[in-house]
Design brief:
The chain has 122 residues and is mainly β. The protein is built from no helices and eleven strands. The model has no long low-confidence stretch (mean pLDDT 94).
Length: 122
């Protein structure tokens, strides 16, 4: 396992979760890292990305200021703090290492974690 995503679970609407993506094989090395999500029957979509040193962050429009991506390179871990969760946020959340130009498309990412399930009840 190169990337291990964790922190998902069942939460009520309006609640919060913090996802973690741990890098066990130095996959991050100087690269940006992103979170994507995939709901049942839908395509995988970009959620947020963070540059290697954390100085630049990028978010999907639907995040609306509810999510915060961060990283601790000393711990080889990237986080996604999710607040004000909505039932529409229910999905498998994946972390991935950025290796090409466009942050917002899956083809720009080479290494993927296994996904952690987030379920938001109404």
């Amino acid at each position: 396992v190169q990337l291990q995503a964790s922190g998902g679970g069942l939460v009520q609407a309006g609640g919060s979760l913090r996802l973690s993506c741990a890098d066990f094989k130095r996959t991050f090395s100087n690269n940006a890292v992103a979170w994507f999500r995939q709901a049942p029957g839908k395509e995988r979509e970009f959620v947020a990305a963070i540059s290697w040193r954390g100085g630049n962050t990028y978010y999907a429009d639907f995040v609306k200021g509810r999510y915060t991506i961060s990283r601790d390179n000393a711990k080889s871990t990237v986080y996604l703090q999710m607040n004000s969760l909505e039932p529409e946020d229910t999905a498998l959340y994946y972390c991935a290492v950025h290796t090409a130009s466009d942050y917002y498309v899956t083809s720009s990412y080479r290494y993927w974690g296994q996904g952690t399930l987030v379920t938001v009840s109404s």
